[in-house]
Design goal:
mainly alpha; 0% strand; transmembrane helix; membrane; transmembrane; ABC transporter permease
Length: 272
């Protein structure tokens, strides 16, 4: 009596399946939920605190005009989003962990063995991360802005004021982009401490160092640095020494594309 061997056809690797796998891995990280909660809490908490301090000085600005959207240092939108810098670092660190932790544990070998073409893994990580983090970041920025303006009261801004919606939504975009930058650096450097240190330097130290080292004639180049470009996009009104909002976004996205492109090249051409 003969038996028929039943063989299961191989499962075809598709971008959708790889993305689903990365979705599971993203939520399996113990740091994922805690990190996002911390980032949202910092963004909302510091924003509301700054708004409450701003309330104490809403009578006039330095020019004697009532405070409102785009009124420089007394801009109520910037006050309610004062926690962005801290949230940016936290989301960036989460992006680093999402990528670099696989190199630390050796799990990247299993991931690339299952996906021989390699690059779908990177695209899936970026897709999952961007979808989740933008949702969380936008919810947090909307709460911080709405709550902050309620605290400020009559001197506050509204969603319908010029530049306000762009500033709030743009802040969520920049926070998401900072995390994607972390993914790119994690893939390039393949070390969590090195990638987080580089991320911190690029986002927060580079501008200060450049201001000290560049001669006066090169001061206009500062507006093209990542932090200044992203700030131009999230500013309610354009500053005289800054890029236009959409030019700032283009420059910031250019940096992201360069880092992700370099990460993709190394992932494709170098051994794990």
């Amino acid at each position: 009596m003969s038996t028929v061997a039943l063989t299961r056809p191989p499962i075809r690797v598709t971008q959708a399946r790889v993305t689903r796998s990365e979705w599971i891995k993203f939520w399996s990280l113990r740091s994922t939920v805690a990190t996002m909660v911390v980032a949202a809490a910092l963004l909302i908490g510091i924003g509301l605190l700054a708004a409450s301090i701003f309330t104490g000085d809403t009578s006039t600005t330095t020019t004697g005009a009532p405070p409102g959207p785009g009124s420089g240092a007394s801009d109520p939108v910037s006050a309610s989003l004062a926690g962005v810098t801290f949230a940016q670092l936290v989301f960036g660190a989460l992006g680093v962990l999402f990528m670099a932790s696989e190199y630390g544990t050796g799990q990247i070998r299993s991931s690339l063995a299952a996906v021989p073409k390699r690059l779908p893994v990177l695209w899936a990580k970026i897709t999952v991360f961007a979808a989740v983090v933008f949702t969380v970041a936008f919810a947090a920025t909307a709460i911080a802005f709405t709550g902050g303006q309620a605290i400020i009261g009559d001197g506050g801004a509204s969603w319908s004021d010029p530049g306000v919606a762009r500033a709030v939504i743009g802040t969520a975009v920049v926070l998401t982009g900072s995390g994607i930058l972390g993914i790119g650096l994690g893939s390039l450097l393949r070390s969590t401490p090195a990638a987080i240190s580089t991320l911190f330097g690029v986002l927060f130290l580079l501008t200060g160092v450049a201001e000290l080292l560049l001669p006066d004639g090169w001061s206009t180049a500062l507006q093209y640095l990542p932090s200044n470009a992203s700030s131009a996009f999230t500013a309610v009104t354009q500053q005289t020494d800054a890029l236009t909002p959409w030019a700032g976004l283009a420059v910031f996205l250019g940096y992201l594309a360069a880092v992700i492109g370099a990460a993709a090249w190394r992932l494709k051409h170098s051994d794990v």
